[in-house]
Amino acid sequence: MFETEPDRIPSSFELLGWLQEPFSQPIEIPKMIYEIYIRPNLSLQDSNKFFRSSDEFSFRVMSDIIAIINPPTTGNTEDSFHSFWDALIIKPINIACPNGKYNRNSSSNTSTKKLRPDFSYTLDGACLARGEEKGPNTDNDPAEELTSKLIWTYGSCPYIFGYYARGFDVTYCYLYNEDNQVYRKDLITCNLKTLIGRMNAFVIGRNIGRLLPLIRKGLGDSFHKEFYIIHRPNSQKIIELMQNVVVKRYTSKADFPAKLEKIYRMMDDRQVPYVDHIVQMNKGDNEKLPNIIFSPKGLIHRPSSMKQLVIALYCVLSALKVLHEIGYIHQDIRWENVLKYIDRNAWFIIDFEDASEYPAPGIRHLDRSNHSPEIFKDFHDTSVDMWSIGYLIMTAHVKLPINETLRKYAMELMKENAPISAEIALGFLWQNYKEILRLEGFFRVTNR
């Protein structure tokens, strides 16, 4: 009854009317509930529009709407309203769009809390509905936070949904991008203290939920996930993908990789290209768990054409050339750690937790199937990273003929202790594929 998907996305001009469209038929509810709760609190017109007294009601439907009739109790604090907002604002969206996931921003860390809305509703990794909430006596403007926390990553999508609540009042709106600026357009305010306000909110939330799958289809499969959490139990950390940054949270201070601060500072000082950067580091002071915020956020995207592969190799080798010059090796180069920029046709390296000065001691925890055999031995050097360049070539989504020059070069790179530096490999790339690189706006890297 509540999940019917529309056949089109309404324009912003007709959106308010569309969101207020009632159900195709009134909801059947028990006669006693109708007489005690509905008829005394709604006009005859509204009660007939939304409900019908009947002995043939659905228990499932009744469980969906029971909070409208008997809402959760509240107090005076923001926390005391959470179950109230969940039942009356969020549940209707979820009923109509059951495949979505909703989360509350529970972070107590100021640096990461401001990266998330108070409420986010994601469908296939895309946050298409968000909310900001305040208690009746809480400071700050929830409406302003809707736009200040939003970075538009939805391309030509006409709008996404938002709401802001203060106590019993909730205002529904849509958010849109115009000239690279995010704007908010308020649609309607519902007073959830009243039955008609709760009923209107249910109808609006249900219609928002019905529309989300259609909006998600318009974004395509290549949309980069946001507000997505990756658990890495073996490494004792949790990775959270925000809209344009990545937050790594460590389960204890003992697991915090303190050496990263030095490595990233050195890379920043030497302007190592095509690597991510530390935006903020919290070492676990004030009894909070440590976390690091990295930028930019990228896409796991193995090259699927020769042009993409050449560009990705150029980017990685450009980074390794400078990294090796300052005495460091990455040691874990693979496509999971070589990401594509969201906004341009280039790749960058992430995850320097295994990076080390060289010659380096052997590393025991890495996977032997995708790392150089030399990396497990003591006193290895830059050759392990160059082996990984060959591995990148062989594991890209590009079919290379046996006699292809790049394939042959990969085999040379993967030989034991191959005497090929990143600078030499860049020269090879430029010599054989300079037309591709020039057309894409890249230039030959020279010594600094």
From TrEMBL:
The organism of origin for this protein: Funneliformis geosporum
Domain spans labelled Protein kinase: 168-448
Domain of life: Eukaryota
InterPro entries: Kinase-like_dom_sf, Prot_kinase_dom
Molecular-function GO term, any one: ATP binding
Pfam family, one: Pkinase
Record protein name field: 19674_t:CDS:1
